[in-house]
Write a structure and sequence with these properties.
single chain; 4-stranded mixed sheet; globular; alpha+beta
């Protein structure tokens, strides 16, 4: 996991106040088909297009599918609790 955290890079860190991973990678249950779930609290608003672009760049860089989720998008309380339960903060 340390390699993945390092691989996320400064380009993403510059956009976020806090960044963490959740899901199967955070729980240590990932397999060859797993994506990497990343939660980011953005410093400022960015377009959906920019968010998708960052997600694709990270996926290309790390060689695995990425699911980039902003904290503001977690409206469902059950989903938010599940994310927070797994969350491993890697920045901020």
């Amino acid at each position: 996991m340390d390699g993945l955290c390092f691989g996320i890079g400064w380009d993403v860190v510059e956009l976020g106040e806090r960044i963490g991973i959740f899901g199967s990678f955070a729980r240590g249950e990932n397999n060859a088909d797993s994506d990497l779930d990343i939660l980011i609290q953005l410093k400022e608003r960015i377009s959906l297009l920019k968010l998708v672009q960052i997600e694709q760049e990270l996926s290309d860089k790390l060689g695995i599918p990425i699911d980039l989720v902003t904290e503001n998008s977690l409206k469902n309380p059950r989903l938010k609790r599940a994310v927070e339960r797994d969350l491993i903060r890697i920045y901020g």
